[in-house]
């Protein structure tokens, strides 16, 4: 009987524990840094690593990919850098596991080079290199089935319909050393049917 009770306690407590874990990527603000100082961004998680960049003492909306052992991993330019997490404060309202809670989001991909930008839950625009931007009204944007960390979308506008999925997961664009925290599968309508594109996204 005691074993059964322990199992039931685990089953009921585990989802709460998982839900309490902070979700990434997420936006953070710099805190606790003097007005005449900066927050160092290092090439690795620790003060032994050289400083490669800095953040202003009042910087806000910094995209943090993960925090481990007191160090925040941050996508910056063409690489991934690290900052002391004690000087970063998470912005409120980012507890929804679905990617749609983090808009606006910009996604990029290659072959061909393209960009997708989600302005809000009702609109996106996409553009292929050298072509005009296309606006799309989203008529469906929701979590994807049982995978709460994914958001599916579909919509139409002046162009043909599009659909796709955003997913919270580690992603690399294949062109730089920068890590991203969101991956995208994008299916725009082209001559001959839907084209399958994959890329990485950042929080704006």
Describe what is shown at a glance.
This protein has 204 residues and is mostly beta strands.
Structure description:
By secondary structure, this protein is mainly beta. It has 2 domains: 22-90, SH3 type barrels (Roll); 99-203. It has 1 helix and 16 strands. An 8-stranded antiparallel barrel has the order 8-9-10-11-12-13-14-16. Strands 6-5-4-1-7 form a 5-stranded antiparallel β-sheet, with no helix packed on it. A two-stranded antiparallel ribbon has the order 2-3. The protein is elongated, with a radius of gyration of 20 Å.
Walk me through the topology:
Layout: H1 2-20, E1 26-30, E2 39-42, E3 51-55, E4 62-68, E5 71-76, E6 79-84, E7 88-90, E8 105-109, E9 114-120, E10 123-128, E11 134-144, E12 147-157, E13 162-172, E14 179-190, E15 193-194, E16 197-203
Rg estimate, integer Å: 20 Å
Helix/strand order, N-terminal first = HEEEEEEEEEEEEEEEE
Structure summary, number of beta strands: 16
Largest sheet: 8 strands, antiparallel, barrel
Proportion of residues in extended strands: over 45%
Average pLDDT value? 85
For the largest sheet, list the strands in their spatial order: 8-9-10-11-12-13-14-16
Number of helices: 1
Query: Can you tell me the overall shape?
Result: elongated
Helical fraction equals under 10%
Ends: how far apart? 52 Å
**Count of spatially separate domains:** 2
């Amino acid at each position: 009987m005691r074993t059964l009770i322990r199992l039931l306690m685990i089953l009921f407590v585990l989802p709460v524990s998982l839900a309490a874990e902070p979700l990434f990527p997420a936006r953070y603000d710099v805190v606790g840094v003097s007005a005449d100082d900066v927050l160092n961004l290092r090439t690795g998680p620790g003060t032994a690593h050289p400083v490669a960049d800095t953040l202003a003492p009042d910087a806000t909306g910094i995209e943090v990919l993960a925090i481990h052992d007191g160090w925040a991993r941050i996508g910056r330019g063409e690489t991934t850098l690290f900052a002391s997490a004690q000087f970063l404060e998470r912005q409120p309202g980012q507890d929804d596991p679905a990617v749609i809670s983090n808009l606006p989001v910009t996604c990029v991909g290659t072959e061909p080079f393209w960009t997708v930008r989600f302005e809000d839950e009702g609109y996106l625009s996409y553009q292929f290199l050298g072509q005009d931007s296309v606006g799309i009204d989203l008529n469906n944007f929701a979590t994807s089935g049982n995978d709460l960390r994914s958001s599916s979308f579909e919509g139409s506008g002046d162009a043909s319909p599009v659909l796709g999925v955003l997913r919270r997961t580690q992603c690399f664009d294949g062109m730089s050393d920068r890590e991203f925290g969101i991956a995208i599968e994008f299916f725009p309508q082209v001559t001959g049917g839907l084209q399958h594109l994959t890329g990485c996204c950042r929080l704006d």
